[in-house]
Amino acid sequence: MKKKLFITRKFPPHIVEPLKEFYDIKQWEEEEIVIPREKLLAAVADCEALWVTLADQVDEELLVHAPHLKLVTNLAVGFNNIDIKALRKRGIMATNTPGVLTNTTADFVMGLLLATARRIPESDRYLREGKWKSWYPMQLVGKDVSGSTIGIIGMGRIGQAVARRAKGFDMKILYNNRRRRHEAEEMYGFQYVSLEDLLKQSDFVVIMTPFNDDTVGLIGAEELALMKDDAVLINASRGGIIDENALYETLKSGKLWAAGLDVFEQEPITLDHPLLTLPNVVALPHIGSASLQTRTAMLMLNVKALTAYGQGQTPSNRID
Ligand code: DGY
User: Fold this and answer.
1) pLDDT digits over 68-84, tens only?
2) The D-isomer specific 2-hydroxyacid dehydrogenase catalytic domain covers which part of the protein (predicted)?
3) Ligand 1 atom at shortest distance from the alpha carbon of 78
4) How deeply is 123 buried, as exposed, middle or buried, from its count of CB atoms within 10 A (0-12, 13-18, 19+)?
5) Which is catalytic among the residues 9, 119, 181, 286?
6) Among 40, 57, 262, 317, which residue carries the largest CB count within 10 Å?
């Protein structure tokens, strides 16, 4: 008898197809709309494997509804949507997608940093709205990236890839991380500093740390107050790491040059969110890893894990 797999989103059929050899598959048939919670809870009742996106919460409540569940595979490297402790208690495995999105996300972070510093989205709006009447010296002037100081909070795989790119812009690289990265320090000249020093000294503060109990609200009013008056804050990790109200108040008061945000406390962010009223906020819909190649590679990593489990093997990329 085939194992039962539930997929919480419509994924490309050619990617799902090979799994039919091992699984009896049911799937939420919408590509853009998140499966309503009550439908998800009903759908997991008989499934042994569950393939989710970062928009689905796999928590105690869901597990109670999924007595046969043995494997959860997550279409993301971040796994704050999964209660790993609750899974572990029940002997359920989880897998994610590390490695394949490192370069794509790091490229994107540099893009967001440049777009924010140099006011690129704002300038595009300015032109389309017919505001471009002439060229003048202080028109849409931005902030230089080359030669400035970047402070990276969270020096994992993606943080290091951002740092290597920043070197190409002759940036001085400061970082803060749970563990020192001695090898990277020696190889690339990254400099480890306390969070306080990083905030005080950086022209660009880039958040690359995972979202968990230690990092929730890590950047609040006090931390923002430590930053340089014309610093730029970039977040392409998870929304809850920054206190959005504090960020809004700080930007509104005229402190900070700008913020570039690809992630929000609540996603999608509502259009009446105060941050969206500020011209110096670049706001994007969580697209850090969104290249065709990388999203395909992420899906294929999940397929690999599901295939291994379907064949009775231990899946790779297990979250421990
Ligand atoms: C992740 O993988 O955690 C990203 O946020 C989405 O690619």
Assistant:
1) 999 999 999 999 999 99
2) 7-319
3) 3
4) middle
5) 286
6) 262
Q: What is the mean pLDDT of the chain?
A: 98
Where do the structural domains in the chain lie, given as residue ranges? 3-99+292-310, 102-283
Place of tokens 């700008």: 258
Distance set, CA 317 to CA 4, 47, 49, 98, 212 (Å) = 21, 21, 15, 7, 19
pLDDT in tens, 43-74: 999 999 999 999 999 999 999 999 999 999 99
Give CA–CA dist 44/8, Å, rounded.
10
Instruction: Read off the pLDDT band of 113 (50, 70, 90).
Output: very high
- d(CA 63, ligand 1 centre) in Å: 23
235 alpha carbon to ligand 1 midpoint, in Å? 12
- Asked if domains 3-99+292-310 and 102-283 share a fold, the reply is yes
Mutation test residue for ligand 1: of 104, 105, 158, the one with most atoms within 8 Å of CB: 105
CATH superfamily of domain region 102-283: NAD(P)-binding Rossmann-like Domain (3.40.50.720)
Tokens representing 133 are 């009447």
Distance from C-alpha of 158 to C-alpha of 101, rounded to nearest angstrom: 8
Residue-wise pLDDT for 162-195, tens only, equals 999 999 999 999 999 999 999 999 999 999 999 9
93: Cβ below 6 Å to ligand 1?
Answer: no
pLDDT at 169: 98
Q: Which amino acid is at 181?
A: R
Q: Between β-strands 258-261 and 232-235, what pairing exists: parallel, antiparallel or unpaired? A: parallel
**Residue ranges of E strands in 144-293:** 149-153, 172-176, 191-192, 204-207, 232-235, 258-261, 281-283
Distance 53 CA to ligand 1 centre (A): 9
